[in-house]
Design brief:
Length: 209
Amino acid sequence: MELLKDWKWRYATKKFDTEKKISNEDLQNLKEAIQLAPSSYGLQPFKVLIVDDPEVREKLSPVSWNQPQITEASHLFVFAAKTGMDKDYIEKFIELRADKQGKSKEELQAYGDFIFNSIKDKSNEELTHWNSRQVYIALSNLLTACANQRIDACPMEGFDNNAYNKILGLEEHGLHAVAVVAVGYRSSEDSYADLEKVRFPEEVLFETV
Ligand SMILES: Cc1cc2nc3c(=O)[nH]c(=O)nc-3n(C[C@H](O)[C@H](O)[C@H](O)COP(=O)(O)O)c2cc1C
């Protein structure tokens, strides 16, 4: 399987080449990889900020344990989960679905009600966690797409989520920073590139029942 080669090639890049930028065409493909990720009911309860502004990235650096990827990578993707879930959002999703699938809103009403009934008794915190889990599926799509295109990436949770919310103004948009992916090209000085992969063996990881 070709994909196995891609996953073996990739590693969590620590040091990026600051001179190399990913092309617009590659960026477009990576965005599409995120867009095509599956999500529960198809709701895509998140937003992805691509932080271009060097000044903003400088501000994010100290609240990311000063990890060099934040300022040195070509592009920085910040994945923010929607906080909670509401009828309006589900309504908008149903409208989109009706439009895309050539159905009437009425035809899809039962599906919308079904989604709403499944979430209406959950707390905001539970819903935000649920939304965050959808984020990780999209994040994984991005990592795989990068590897496939021989673009380096580092998934990151080592940052202060609340500080990101403040700096990027996420809270007022009903969003919460969950994870970051730094994307670009490895520096020839990144010693992590040559390290052996560390993974538990099959017999530890799998069980047939
Ligand atoms: C959700 C998540 C959060 C991570 N956070 C960081 C991080 O903040 N900084 C970092 O350098 N690596 C981070 N990593 C990278 C992991 O340490 C790395 O994926 C793991 O050690 C396996 O190594 P490999 O990706 O090079 O195969 C993170 C990985 C994931 C999936």
